[in-house]
Design brief:
There is one protein chain. The chain folds into three domains: 101 residues, no CATH class; 201 residues, Immunoglobulin-like (Sandwich); 96 residues, Immunoglobulins (Immunoglobulin-like, Sandwich), CATH 2.60.40. A five-stranded mixed β-sheet has the order 2-8-7-4-5, with no helix packed on it. Strands 15-17-13-11-19 form a five-stranded mixed β-sheet, with no helix packed on it. A five-stranded mixed β-sheet has the order 12-20-18-14-16, with no helix packed on it. The protein is built from eight helices and 29 strands. Helix content is 19%, strand content 39%. The protein is an alpha+beta fold. Strand 7 and strand 8 form a beta hairpin.
Length: 506
């Protein structure tokens, strides 16, 4: 073997890594276009997503709650289409109960496996405004909120006491005064008269009008949103529910129909106005949208006019109804392929999310590497892409972690039969080339060529490829050329491998 191979001192593995690293700046912008072969994956994942819960909804069973009674609440699992979904396992929610006085309590509610809803009870400990927050303990599900009025129990009627006859009317005091009566311009004389003033009961000297006046607490409207600051799906069905609760001075229901008016700049609000019917305590309206957007909602006024408290001004964040993870089903051990996150609208068409969305990719078996592993889908683009690099044979599962979405993982099979065939063919070609130059036994040269080609290809696949992200490097036919080089070098490759792993000193 000639000694003028300069790269022999540093090792051909180092030279290969340097060459491949220099070409690793290949752009993946072309992968942003959604391939047509991924349509089947999108339909499949859309069907699976429809069976997944996305939020929890809470509803009061009784129409009127009295203090000290057991109030029953129903909680339901819903999907992104606002339809009930049966739980695949036991779901539990934390329920926090807050009273006007500042007192609070917590308890746990359950939805059993195979059921879409479950009920729980809480003791209405105090009269007045009560808020219930229902938060699923499993990540990714949107919570819900209830605002209700707890009425005081009716006080028992008391028997009226008999009133003495002399105390039925207030006492009368007389004060002497002089009246001058003139008739026809002549004085008719002075006579004593008396002016009667009614004294206050119990000897009080207060003015009767002031004494009879009482200060009453004005009635107010309490506005609340099911999940302020949460993300809602822009499919026209997932709604931010606005609840208006009437709190009267004596906690009685609305004395007349109340209309509550709002202003919003995008999306839909139905009904407008929100109505609290006479004899009821609350009414609701819903905000929906068909496209990703931030919808600003403001309280305007009510008829009759009442002071509004609570969520009088808020923003509803509408996001694409679904995001999917798509990628190849099979991949050669030396090949590469884009794996993509795609946002979809209600018709399963790609749609821009409207804001940047952080994504992190994970490999269950660590047989796949990503470049990059974490990235952001831009708000103006419907998809984001990462390069997928296999580093071992077998199968692996890719999953994507992103807020507010539960993406279906993607199983990928990593093959190597074609790589093996190219490795053997390249080693054979390299051995024949070495025989043509250096002569000797051609059988021996072929054997050394196949051996050298296999070893160098192994170094290339398991050591070089995981460290580079070049399209040129991660190409199946690159194995053939690496094997040709290994076959030509023959036993020199064995020395390089031994030194690389420290089996022999350099």
């Amino acid at each position: 073997m000639p000694s003028n191979f300069a790269w022999r001192k540093t090792g051909c593995f180092g030279v290969l890594s340097a060459i491949l690293t220099a070409s690793s700046a290949t752009s993946w912008a072309s992968a942003q276009k959604l391939p047509s072969e991924y349509n089947a994956q999108i339909k499949q994942q859309a069907a699976l997503a429809a069976a997944q819960p996305a939020k929890v909804s809470a509803k009061l069973v009784a129409t009127e709650i009295l203090v000290g009674s057991n109030a029953e609440v129903e909680i339901t699992l819903l999907n992104a289409e606002n339809l009930p979904v049966a739980a695949k396992q036991d779901w539990h929610c934390e329920v926090s109960i807050h009273y006007r006085s500042g007192k609070s309590s917590t308890q746990t509610a359950w939805i059993k496996k195979g059921e879409a809803s479950g009920n729980f009870e809480f003791v209405a400990a105090e009269a007045g405004l009560v808020t219930l927050n229902v938060s699923p303990m499993s990540g990714g599900l949107r919570p819900d909120k209830l605002t209700i009025i707890v009425r005081p129990t009716q006080a028992p009627s008391k028997k009226k006491k008999s009133v003495p006859a002399n105390s039925a009317l207030p006492s009368i005091r007389t004060y002497p005064t002089a009246l001058s009566i003139r008739t026809g311009g002549q004085s008719a004389g002075l006579k004593l008269a008396s002016l009667a003033l009614a004294a206050a009961p119990n000897g009080s000297s207060q003015n009767p009008q002031i004494q009879g006046a009482t200060t009453k607490k004005a009635a107010v409207l309490h506005l609340s949103v099911s999940d302020v600051g949460g993300n809602y799906f822009a499919n026209g069905r997932d709604a931010a529910v606005i609840t208006a609760v009437y709190e009267g001075a004596d906690l009685s229901p609305a004395p007349a129909d109340i209309h509550v008016w709002f202003h919003w700049a995008d999306g839909y609000l139905d009904p407008q106005p929100l109505q609290i019917l006479k004899g009821a305590y609350s009414g609701t309206t819903k905000v929906t949208s068909l496209r990703p957007a931030d919808v600003q909602v403001n309280f305007v006024s009510s008829t009759p006019s009442y002071e509004a408290q609570g969520d009088t001004q808020f923003t509803v964040h509408f996001v694409p109804p679904m995001a999917v993870l798509i990628g190849p089903e099979k991949l050669s051990v030396v090949d590469n392929s884009p794996v993509m996150i795609v946002f979809l609208d209600a018709q399963n068409n790609p749609v821009a999310p409207g804001k940047n969305w952080a994504v992190t990719l994970r490999s269950h078996q660590s047989k796949l590497h990503f470049a990059p592993q974490s990235f952001e889908v831009q708000g103006t683009s419907p998809s984001g892409t990462s390069a997928l690099f296999p580093v071992a044979l077998g199968s692996d599962t890719v999953e994507a972690v992103m807020a507010n979405y539960q993406l279906q993982p993607r199983a990928i099979v990593i093959t190597g039969w074609l790589v093996l065939a190219l490795c053997l063919g390249g080693g054979l070609a390299g051995g024949l080339a070495a025989y043509n130059k250096f002569r000797g036994s051609w059988l021996w040269r072929i054997f050394l060529g196949i051996l050298g080609g296999a070893v160098l290809s192994w170094l290339y696949v398991y050591l070089a490829l995981p460290n580079v992200s070049s399209n040129l490097a991660h190409n199946t036919f690159s194995v053939f050329f690496v094997s040709v080089l290994g076959g030509y070098l023959g036993t020199t490759v064995l020395d390089i491998a031994a030194k690389r792993f420290g089996w022999i000193s350099s």
